[in-house]
Write a structure and sequence with these properties.
It is built from four helices and no strands. It is mostly helical and 84 residues long. Helix 1 runs antiparallel to helix 3 (37-58) and helix 3 runs antiparallel to helix 4 (64-81).
Length: 84
């Protein structure tokens, strides 16, 4: 993988998890103004984990633990997003 690919991937993830998109606003989903501080922290943690995952892939190391952490953070985010 080249550096430009990683930069693009990280920017895409940042856009997906941290910044709101026009589509999300259009369909009434979350934007930063309506997110709790906890949800924003989770999004930032997801970005960090994704960067770690990319680095491990570059180094041809096992990503299973990071994948598990990412899944846990996604589930936590969903729980915050859809309180019962």
């Amino acid at each position: 993988m080249d550096k430009q690919y990683l930069r693009d991937k990280i920017e895409n993830l940042r856009h997906k998890f941290v910044e709101s998109t026009q589509h999300e606003r259009a369909v009434g989903m979350l934007d930063e103004a309506h997110m709790s501080k906890k949800m924003l922290k989770i999004k930032k943690k997801l970005i960090t984990l994704e960067m770690e995952r990319c680095q491990k892939k570059i180094e041809h190391k096992d990503c299973s633990k990071i994948d598990q952490k990412i899944q846990e953070q996604k589930e936590l985010f969903e729980a915050c997003r859809n309180p019962k």
